Amino acid sequence: MKIVNDDTNPLITSIITTYRRPLLVQRAILSALNQIEKRVRVLVLDDASGDDTEKVVRELMQRDDRIVYHRHNPNIGLVANFDYGLQHITTPYFSFLSDDDALLPECYAEALRQFAQCPAAMFAVFGTAAVSDTGAIMGMSILRWKPGFYEPPTGIEAMVTYGVPIWTGIVFRREIYSEIGGLDPEVGIGMDRDFELRAAARFPFVVCHTPGAIFRVETLKPNGARHPYPFHGIWPGRPKMMEKLGRNEFIPPAIRTRVTQILENQFRRNLPGLGLRYIYTGQLESAIEVANVLATHYRSPVIARIIRAVLALRKVGGTTLTNALLGLAYRFNGLSRAWRQRITAQEPYANTARAIVEYYRAQRNIGT
Q1: What DSSP line would sit under 77-107, residue for residue?
Q2: pLDDT tens by residue, 208-246
């Protein structure tokens, strides 16, 4: 039986980008269609997959007319694909959803409630659970945030201090796009952070601890098929993003300096771990690039030498020994992170976390 949308004026567009993940995108689409708030338009953007993606989506379209499908030819890349979706928003609100992620059922309904309570808010932020393939919660975004209404410049200060939220759990007003423009391809895979920071620099927003989305996390494997993004997708995009922020006239000069310095320090602290991840997953060229940036841009020759030493150890001792040592380090780091999350999380989140795991496991027969 086909579901027909009786409301000719949907309120929220779910922009779903996909590339060669026909089963996973099915789960993402269904998570948008199964929202408690039914006035939804699902815009599926296929970046020239050339596999069963179109077939899977069109089968869903036979059952629900709220789906709109577009296939690019040729492939235009992740940033341009998301930006294409932005350019084709026709509803008052929208959100971004990657093909391997999912929305929780109350996300859009809760977003509309938050906008009704805070009419000045230009976007609503919800918790996003990072969930492994087995259904284990690896983390929850915005736990450090206090729920409530944030106005500029307090909002952008909070964003860099407490962590830029995962945009999977954010619902935006359409006016955001007309005011701040689309996604910037020059910042690479940091286009989501850049978009959020530009929005927070100019407009108020509301933060709600209600989880709204699931962000799928694949376990890192030695020389595995799924790696971190290559470093050329991060650098020089990250310094370009911070340079733009440093020139943003909507942020008071003193706060502008403080915000860019915080982001700079955060990125610098994360680089050594990123370099080791690249070695663990076999992306040796990216590891070398990280070491070079640490040595030349951040003047950290000692840390750069450590990364190069691990690379040398891999060449001499082989991948087995090196990956065993790195694997132990990651397990320890994961346990430490999980313990910190456990301490930080408030008791109401425990029940919510269990509900998320149950929901995710119930969906595992889809997209696996």
Answers
A1: -HHHHHHHHHHT--SSEEEEEETT-EE-TTH
A2: 988 899 998 876 666 554 556 899 999 999 999 999 999
Q: What is the DSSP string of 118-130?
A: -TT-SEEEEEEEE
What residues pair up with 96 in beta bridges, in sequence order? 15
Question: In this predicted structure, which of 159-168, 219-228, 329-338 has the lowest mean pLDDT?
Answer: 329-338
Q: Which residues 6+ apart lie within 8 Å of 363 measured at CB?
A: 27, 30, 31, 102
Contact between 82 and 191 (Cβ < 8 Å):
yes
- The counts of H helices and E strands in the chain are 12, 10
Please enumerate in sequence order all residues whose Cβ is within 8 A of that of 269, keeping only pairs 6 or more positions apart, or say none.
Answer: none
Residue 140: closest CA among 211, 68, 53 = 211
Are the C-beta atoms of 281 and 224 separated by less than 8 Å? yes
Kindly report the pTM of this predicted structure: 0.89
Interatomic CA distance for residues 101 and 92, integer angstroms: 23
Give residue 228's pLDDT.
62
CA atoms within 13 A on the CB side of 358: 7
- CA–CA separation, 169 vs 77, rounded Å? 22
Nearest to 123 by CA among 210, 217, 206: 206
Question: What CA–CA distance (Å, rounded) separates 154 from 247?
Answer: 18
